[in-house]
Design brief:
By secondary structure, the chain is of the alpha+beta class. It has helices at residues 2-24, 43-56, 90-100, 102-105, 110-113, 173-178, and strands spanning 30-33, 65-68, 74-78, 80-81, 114-119, 123-130, 133-144, 150-157. Strands 1, 2, 3, 4, 5, 6, 7 and 8 form an eight-stranded antiparallel beta sheet that branches. The two termini are 27 Å apart.
């Protein structure tokens, strides 16, 4: 059991490093923090940044930011202020937020397409699934500030083409076991 946890932690660390390195290399996304969209950004990226800043009242001066992929789909947001009461649950807020902003993230039905992996109260991580099959490296993570006044990070990595993949098995479990 302990060996399995260590193996899972090593895999999580490797996946996190891969995502961070990919992001820095510009393979997955361009992040526009503090100074506006990068000069080499596409028009779709610039428009995506403008839409998010207008919709949520974000400000470069406060250090808010947004990340978009080359097609203008949002991959990350930093700086959304929230008000909550004692019944506030970040996981509920996350699903409702992604549903209300499906046009920005390209996730049509978050409650169906994103399976909850964990919820610490201040951090929620979800895995993209298609017909019950997990999509490799496709996750959403929402983090709340320690003082619970704003969303310190929304990071969405999804595969928009995954919905088109046929997940119906072509062999049964006995045939699979024989391979």
């Amino acid at each position: 059991n302990c060996e399995r946890v260590i193996r899972i932690n090593k895999i999580s660390i490797i996946l996190t490093i891969t995502l961070v390195l990919s992001s820095f290399a510009g393979v997955i996304t361009k992040i526009a923090f503090a100074q506006g969209p990068p000069p080499d950004s596409t028009e779709a990226q610039r428009e995506g940044v403008r839409r998010v800043f207008q919709r949520f009242g974000l400000s470069w001066e406060r250090g808010d930011g947004v990340g978009v992929d080359r097609d203008g789909r949002v991959t990350g947001i930093r700086g959304i202020h929230v008000s909550y009461d004692s019944t506030f649950r970040l996981v509920d807020w996350a699903y409702e937020f992604l549903e209300a902003n499906a046009d920005l993230f390209g996730i049509a039905n978050p409650r169906q397409e994103l399976r909850l992996l964990f919820d610490t109260g201040n951090v929620v991580r979800m895995q993209q699934v298609v017909n019950g099959v997990e999509v490799y490296l496709a996750e959403a993570q929402i983090e709340m500030s320690a003082d619970r006044t704003y969303i310190s990070g929304i990071d969405v990595r999804r595969d928009p083409e995954a919905r088109a993949i046929n997940t119906t098995p072509t062999i049964d479990h006995l045939q699979a076991a024989a391979i």
